[in-house]
Amino acid sequence: MDHFVYRDGRLCAEDISLAHIAEETETPFYCYSQATIERHYRVFADAFADADATVCYAVKANSNIAVISVLAHLGAGADVVSGGELKRALTADIPASRIVFSGIGKTGEELAAALDAGILQINVESEPELELLGQVATDRGVRAPVAIRVNPDIDALTHDKISTGKAENKFGIEWTRAHRVYSRARTMPGIDIVGIAVHIGSQVTDLEPFREAFVRARDLIVLLRADGLAIRHLDLGGGLGIPYGDEPVPSPDEYAAMVKSVIGNLDCHLILEPGRVITGNAGVLVTSVLYVKEGATRGFVVVDAAMNDLMRPALYGAFHDIVTVMEPAAKTEHQEVDVVGPVCETGDTFAANRLLPPLGPGDLLAIRTAGAYGAVMSSVYNTRPLVPEVLVRGSDFAVVRKRLSADDMLSREVVPNWLKTR
Which of 219, 253, 277 is the last residue of a domain? Predict the structure, then answer.
């Protein structure tokens, strides 16, 4: 459920018309519903209310500080994958004690920042990273709280580009080698082994791959404890999928029931890293029609948003529902069109052969389920400015990221003296 509904013929975010926001901010822009973010977080957190668990929002899904702040007010933690995301989470008032640092390429500076902040846990993904972290921690006179990310070699049955738990993926340490790595880690003076981490991918819509991965993590915990290691944390990652169309997906309650059936009485503190499931359906990308073009074999609706604003269709071939901001009249005849952007790439296509009512220049469209992996993955390709992000609460809205201008972008570039002619 989300809070984007038609009222009096206009698509609204909660209690405010998207057309009104478009008049104030111009298009394209992202719009997020605070009520939807709050509802989705509560549904997920409530599913684990009877467990010893910390819900750490995956900041990479949507890293706007206002969005993180909404979740901070609800008591969420944060899963970060860079020093920049760590700074965002702390700026948004996520307590350091509820922050987990994941990612395979952490620098020494990032590890130092995490230790200085006093975060809950660092998920180590390789032996070289473990050695570096041990040195950084020793230099600071502290012990780093570490969970080793185990690669369980499980196919998440998702898109290849967002699958992270197979042996050929770059993430984690092979589960068959994990025991040896833990044995090494326990001898390192700067390392405090606190747990195990596992994450098999994103947009996972079948619970069985989760189950298989969690069984392997459970069995490894039993083995490590038998060797005298006090494994206290089990980080199950994120990845629970959401509907982009009519496809069925497991609910947070169903996911939680599966987790509890596998983990049983391990007596571990669970760490959960939902991202897309919290913010995905809480956002839309609003765009204006520029032209309607009749091609040789199909019709094109050219809009002012582009692949640099929302990369998922070009990058993954991802589906997003697209609706008109003005509700079409009953029995309006729809026609098949391609919805495309102005970037000079054929891949700059949001939808092909999509049924939409007749459209003309200035009409507004909303690309739905764009609250995760939308604005965070945007770029300035073609010197197109990053678009605004808007947060709505009831009948109020605020621009929570301003639109860049071409001058803003050019001001950061320098022509060297030897190329200046005047």
Answer: 277
Q: Is 344 a catalytic residue?
A: yes
CA distance 381 to 289: 20
Asked if 105 and 236 sit in the same domain, the reply is yes
Query: What is the spatial order of strands in the sheet that 10-13 belongs to?
Result: 4-7, 10-13, 16-17
Cα separation, 313 vs 374, in Å, equals: 10
Task: State pLDDT tens for residues 263-315.
Answer: 988 999 999 999 999 999 999 999 999 999 998 788 999 999 999 999 999 99
β strands within 243-282, DSSP E:
269-272
Q: Specify whether the CB–CB gap between 301 and 363 falls below 8 A.
A: no
123 and 255 belong to one structural domain? yes
Give which of 68, 122, 124 is closest to 100, Cα–Cα.
Answer: 122
- Do 224 and 341 have their domain in common? no
Does residue 328 contact residue 355 with C-beta atoms inside 8 Å?
A: no
Q: Which residue is associated with the tokens 């922050």?
A: 99
Q: Which of 12, 31, 56, 344 is an active site residue?
A: 344
Average pLDDT, the chain: 93
- End-of-domain residue from the set 277, 312, 329: 277
Q: Which domain holds residue 399?
A: 4-31+280-410
* d(C-alpha 198, C-alpha 210), whole Å: 10
pLDDT confidence of residue 162:
47
Q: Is the pTM of this model over 0.90?
A: yes
Same domain, 243 and 348: no
Check whether residue 237 and residue 311 sit in a common domain.
no
